Amino acid sequence: MVKTALVIGGGHNGLMAAVTLRESGFNVTLIEARGKVGGMADTETIMGVKVSRASYVLGLMPKRFVDKFNIPVIRQDPFQVVYIDGRLIPFWRDRDKRVEALVKAGEVKFPEFEDKLLKFKELMESKFTFVNEPPSVSEIRDEAVKLGVEEFIEESCSRVLSEYLSPDLHYTFMYPGMENSPAYLIAYFYSPDWSFVKGGMGTVGDVMLKYALSIGVNIRLGVRVNGLEFKGDIVTGVATNVGVLKGDVIVSSVSPILLDQWIKGRGSGWRIPRPGWRKYNIVLKDYPRIPPELRPYAHSIIDTDAGELVIPSILDETRGGVVLEFMGDLGSLLDMMPDIREKALVIDELTPRDAEVTYNVPNGDVNHIPMRTPYVLNGRPGYRTQFLNLFQGSAGNYPGGQVTGVPGYNAAKLAAGAYSA
């Protein structure tokens, strides 16, 4: 008899899990509380213009997944530009060209830094990405020593960056709060593949949904989970607003914090503070006046003193208007481009509280659980739970946040192996 699988959550990890289980021979139903799939990879239409409301660039998803679902990426070049205190450094996709630009800007140790960084990143991708459980620091160190890149697992982000780069470039390679976390995180987030997605990030969910439907995944929207029913070490049902749903295998792609609440039937044991990020989606009647030296690179991801800025409509004609998306301090951005005030048709603000309500993410953390010590590597939840037929694979699980699909894939492969159809 063909076994059944129930996937909870229709974000990109949930869709990945559903597709993987279906291709492993299961009859799969995916349930999603919202009226559409995609989670925080979300395109919203504001005044007739498409914006990537939460996540806004794609760069960490393995190429095999991008190709599998035919995700229409727009590979802007340079992929990123640092524009801080009037200093402008382009990061070109071509490595030789990129290194030349950094050295010309005075970063003479960048070639050595990136060489080691990319070796470590390749190590992580080849041996420690598609796994059944999070690797330990010692496992990674043993392999890193063989390549001479152990500093990325032994040292902190701040120490490694201070060794190789000027202080004003440090936050190009790490987020605030990562300073004392292992430099592994520099390699995790750094990628010359950062790209826009045609039509906004919601396209990721759209094409994954199309693929899932084409192979027979059953998608049910508007289904909200209230809790789990279990007997001993088996989950016997998932209580929802439409009744109790069952599956031989259950994979949760929601935050581990939320799953913990369902298991315990009360407040979660996680005690994580709400982050302080702000995302602004600005629809304008015309493009703002960009500083002259920055204009040739306005189509790139722009790291500024104010925060990170993208103007995807320069390259994406499907947006339907002028779109500026920004993560950072709005006041500082307006100081840099003051005519935004007069040209803005609407300034949409997304806060952690908004994300918690809209996307059902406890604390509004885009990574579900912070990407910093102690929640990295095997400090991050794995894919198994205390129940034999319940698995989890979300941005809160190893290897971590951003739009990758890896946790959902790993959880589903593990579930499929444990409960062969």
TrEMBL record:
<dbReference type="Pfam" id="PF13450">
    <property type="entry name" value="NAD_binding_8"/>
</dbReference>
<dbReference type="InterPro" id="IPR036188">
    <property type="entry name" value="FAD/NAD-bd_sf"/>
</dbReference>
<protein>
    <recommendedName>
        <fullName>FAD dependent oxidoreductase</fullName>
    </recommendedName>
</protein>
